[in-house]
Amino acid sequence: MSFEEKNTWIYALVSAGAFAAYVVTILGRAQGIPLAEVPYVGAMLWSIGAAIVASIVGRVIVAVVWPRDADRTDQRDREIHRFGEYVGQWLVGIGAVAALLLAMAEVPHFWIANELYLAFVLSALLSSAAKLVAYRRGFQLW
């Protein structure tokens, strides 16, 4: 398994884990009050910040455990990364349009912010899945 593939696994797991922890936190705070009234900003910022830090720490750990692979990135890795990012980015676009529509409908900020966060997480997961499939099943330039 290449260095970049290991980091893709870390990115996917951290993204999913951080979002799951955020959802559990928000649902735990919603005891008897509507979701749109739950204080979410702090939890969301902590979740995003923790995910960033965990991804960086994970990358450093992989580099320390496998130091010879840390600097090895070839053309195939770059092409797979680009392919995965292209696949995942369309979800960010859809999420932006959905957020725009929610804002036009004057939906509470809670729903808009959470829709955007979900769009980013789904984009990260789709991008990671596309990369991992390319690493495992092969990748051809088109």
Structural class: mainly alpha
**Helix percentage range:** over 70%
Q: Which stretches are poorly predicted, pLDDT < 50 over at least 5 residues? A: none
Could you tell me the number of beta strands?
0
| N-to-C series of helices and strands | HHHH
Whole-Å distance between the termini?
24 Å
Taken as a percent bin, the fraction of beta residues is under 5%
- Bulk shape: flat
Number of helices: 4
Q: Could you report the average pLDDT, rounded to the nearest whole number?
A: 91
Number of domain units: 1
User: Main beta sheet, described?
Assistant: none
| Overall radius of gyration | 18 Å
Task: Describe the protein.
It is a single chain. The protein is an all-alpha fold and 142 residues long. It has one domain (3-137). The chain contains four helices and no strands. It has helices spanning 3-29, 41-65, 75-104, 109-137. Helix 1 (3-29) packs antiparallel against helix 2 and helix 1 (3-29) packs antiparallel against helix 4 (109-137). The longest helix has 30 residues, at 75-104.
Key terms for this structure?
142 residues; mainly alpha; 0% strand; flat
How would you briefly describe this protein structure?
This protein has 142 residues and is mostly helical. It contains 4 helices and no strands.
